[in-house]
Design a protein that fits this description.
Chain lengths: 504, 293
């Protein structure tokens, strides 16, 4: 069969899109739903934020904190007051000056309880912030912190772009963002693409004049587009495409692990998933290696960390695929087999599995999961949600049974937001007082051994409680055309060093 | 970084030096336990050097059956056999092999007999091992400059691939069953390529160029099984990558590089814990970030 015959119209359209000289086109499975660092919840949004916005501090190429918008920062002797000086001469993409007032506005907006920012935790160490003048401001800290500078990575927003506070998710800024990063938003395309142009106000000459984010929801086409030179970068390569791309001399592959893991998450606010025996039974009905095999190489997991993590508890094995044990657990939870299905109070157990439309390979996994659970006596419906429905149904309304999803973490692998009862990303409603205490203790600890001990206990408890069935981490690589030079990929934010990249 | 060095140690050249210089201090110390070995290690090393000098491994065959070190472990016994034995056999046989034909090349990173002989004279303290520079020169690829520039490493690998690819394609297209078996099935060219890149990476680490070392190591990994030790993915490759990452600020990522080795090297647990503590300390004051997908 010829390649042309199997191409979708989407692929043909993408191929037809001409390359602009100096333009770097990269593929995302799904276009960002929002361009506003206050509300970013996906990796695609985080990558776009990295192009558009800057923080007071940022990682240098050796991942050390280095001033970006800040010229410098000094901590008082008591380590409870941080004085920050803003670099002179910085401007926003619209030409207006970037001042200390913008920094204060950002902190206060993040902290405003009516803003409901998903990133509020990034400034939870700040008691108050006061502007001294256009270039100076003072952070009062809630408690002494000799390393407070390390927390100045949050993205700074332009106060003048917002009419007032609180800033809502629906604010017009989401479609007309103004930042201070190396690129400015040039336009949204009809095909969900976003074009970013090099900012003339950025204080460094850029080697890539334009970056275009292309939405290519069918991941199996992304590698082809790269090989046909209709893209210059793939953020994440499917594991099965790795060997093919490695053989091509037109691309170079970069590890982009982001400490990511897949999971099946239960809605603990809804029966029968509020019963841990049911969750554990479903875990025992799941043959994880068989789900993983068709989508690539990776490592199965027993808890909320990847296997190479210092926090991974290697003493905890994954749930076994054990139907006898599942039967025992279902019976103890009051279920009985009626015909081929588990039933309680005359109702057959029916589970709807929700997955994000663009989660790579999710369809294969969900269909296999449906087959596994059905054969174990559970009726399974499947739904694939677009970004808006996902945010509304899963995050906001908690209107679901079970999700198939993936979390990505930076090198700190802080799972507090996902597992603490007050966590902003704990939409499943998991609550365990011991886990809360351990997570708080881990965050407060200055001793790596103590932090490891706390989080390894968390791993063990969460495994037993089974608010999620932990699935796997995939071998994750990014592919970039060899036409792009001096590429260094940040291990989480991807584009942090894009101002050094150059196009041939 | 003794353990990283130890990971690479078994592939380092303890090549022929004049017998009168023995015993000489080693750059990489042997584990202290070896000092208690039943047979003095220096004596075994002398046997190696003698075998390489004489190109005769006859004496070594007999010695190889005796463990260098044995200790009681539970109800059994743990034995450490001579880790350099096959390397010496390889070197001794390589210099006796004909200069032409596959026998001169197989299982060696050297492209010619002369390169192998020059390699055999290399000091044990020199990290540029694996015939990398000799191979680059013969393939018309310029050696790298003394700058820690990852792009320079990418460019060198691109030039190397540009030299190797057409030759490999033509060889496989020739239909010679021996060539297909050696280069297609056994992947000898990929193995050599990986070995050269690993040698370059080690040399860069030795010269304090960790970023470029990391690029060479990254480009050497066979991504058809990126987490597995294999004929292409030498264990030293993962150790080198981990050291390069740790030395260029990527401590957490170094743990990823070490992971494939932990299955085979239980003794790495201590190093992994230590590196994990280091990674935690580096990020202790940062706010952790997480996103979906």
């Amino acid at each position: 069969m010829s390649i042309a015959r199997v191409m979708t119209p989407l692929l043909l359209a993408a191929l037809a899109a001409p390359a602009v000289a100096g333009s770097l086109r990269y593929a995302e499975d799904s276009a960002p739903a929002i361009v506003n660092p206050l509300y970013s919840t996906t990796m695609a949004e985080a990558r776009v934020n990295e192009l558009l916005f800057g923080g007071l501090y940022a990682d240098d190429r050796d991942l050390r904190a280095t001033p970006l918008i800040a010229e410098g920062a000094t901590l008082n002797a008591a380590a409870d007051e941080l004085r920050v000086t803003v670099r002179p001469g910085l401007t926003w993409h619209d030409g207006k000056p970037l001042t200390a007032r913008d920094v204060a506005f950002t902190v206060e907006t993040l902290q405003d309880p009516k803003t409901l920012s998903t990133e509020a935790g990034r400034v939870d160490w700040v008691q108050s912030v006061s502007v001294v003048n256009d270039r100076e401001l003072v952070f009062k800290l809630k408690r002494p912190d000799p390393q407070a500078i390390e927390k100045l990575f949050f993205k700074i927003l332009p106060a003048h772009a917002f009419a007032s506070r609180p800033v809502t998710r629906a604010d017009a800024f989401r479609t007309k963002p103004v930042g201070s990063g190396p690129y400015r938003l040039a336009r949204f395309g009809d095909d969900n693409s976003i074009t970013f142009a090099a900012s003339p106000n950025y204080p460094k000459a850029l080697g890539v004049s334009e970056i275009v984010m292309r939405e290519v929801s069918d991941k199996s086409y992304q590698a082809k587009l790269l090989l046909y030179e209709s893209l210059e970068a793939l953020v994440r390569v499917l594991p099965r495409d790795l060997a093919i791309l490695q053989k091509s001399r037109k691309v170079e592959l970069y590890p982009y692990q982001t400490n990511s893991w897949w999971y099946i998450g239960f809605n603990l606010n809804a029966a029968p998933f509020d019963d841990e025996r049911v969750r554990q039974a479903l875990a025992c009905m799941t043959d994880v290696p068989s789900l993983l095999a068709p989508i690539g190489t990776g490592q199965t997991l027993s808890g909320p960390f990847v296997r190479s993590s210092p926090y991974y508890n290697h003493d905890v094995p994954p749930w076994p695929n054990d139907n006898a044990r599942a039967t025992e657990l279902m019976k103890s939870a009051g279920f009985a087999k009626v015909g081929e299905y588990w039933s309680r109070d005359g109702q057959a157990l029916t589970v709807t599995v929700s997955a994000h439309k663009t989660l790579e390979s999710a369809q294969e996994v969900v269909i296999n999961l449906q087959s596994q659970w059905r054969s174990a006596g559970v009726k399974v419906d499947v739904e694939f949600l677009d970004e808006a429905a996902w945010k509304a149904r899963i995050w906001k309304q908690h209107d679901y049974d079970v999700v198939l999803a993936q979390w990505s973490f930076d090198r700190n692998e802080d799972v507090r937001e996902q597992l603490h009862s007050s966590g902003a990303r704990n939409f499943g409603g998991y609550k365990n007082a011991e886990v809360d205490a351990l997570l708080d203790s881990a965050r407060a600890s200055r001793d790596p051994a103590a932090r490891k001990a706390d989080l390894r206990k968390v791993h063990a408890i969460v495994h037993d409680d089974a608010p999620m069935i932990f699935l796997w981490s995939l071998d994750s690589y990014s592919a970039v055309s060899t036409k792009v030079r001096d590429v260094v990929v940040h291990p989480f934010a991807y584009f942090s060093f894009v101002s050094d990249w150059k196009m041939l | 970084m003794l353990v990283f060095a130890a990971l690479n140690q078994h592939d380092k050249k303890d090549a022929a030096r004049p017998a009168d210089t023995l015993p000489a201090p080693l750059t990489i110390p042997f584990p202290a336990a070896l000092a208690r070995a039943a047979e003095p290690v220096q004596q075994r090393l002398a046997a190696h050097h003698a075998a390489r000098d004489a190109r005769d491994v006859g004496n070594l065959w007999g010695l190889a059956a005796t463990p260098l070190w044995a200790e009681a472990l539970g109800s059994g016994e743990r034995r450490l056999y001579d880790p350099f034995f096959y390397r010496t056999v390889q070197l001794a046989l390589a210099v006796d092999a004909p200069a032409e034909g596959p026998q001169a090349l197989v299982f060696s990173g050297c492209l010619t007999l002369q390169d192998a002989q020059a390699e055999a004279q290399t000091s044990i303290t020199t990290p540029e091992l694996g015939c990398a520079l000799a191979a680059l020169a013969r393939l018309g690829v310029a050696p790298p400059q003394d700058v820690d520039d990852p792009q320079a490493a990418s460019d060198l690998v691109a030039a190397l691939d540009a030299a190797l690819d057409p030759w490999l394609r033509a060889t496989l297209a020739s239909g010679d069953p021996g060539a297909v078996e050696l280069f297609g099935d056994l992947r000898l060219v990929e193995r050599c390529r990986a070995r050269w890149l690993l040698a370059l990476a080690r040399a860069d680490l030795h010269a304090d160029r960790p970023r470029r070392a990391l690029t060479f190591a990254r480009l050497a990994v066979d991504l058809s099984a990126p987490r597995e030790v294999s004929p292409v993915n030498h264990p030293g490759l993962f150790g080198t990558m981990a050291e390069a990452q740790a030395r260029s600020g990527y401590h957490r990522e170094a743990l990823d590089a070490l992971a494939p080795l932990s299955l085979h090297r239980p003794d790495l647990v201590g190093l992994t814990e230590l590196l994990g503590d280091w990674a935690i300390l580096v990020g202790l004051d940062r706010h952790g970030e997480s996103k979906e997908n």
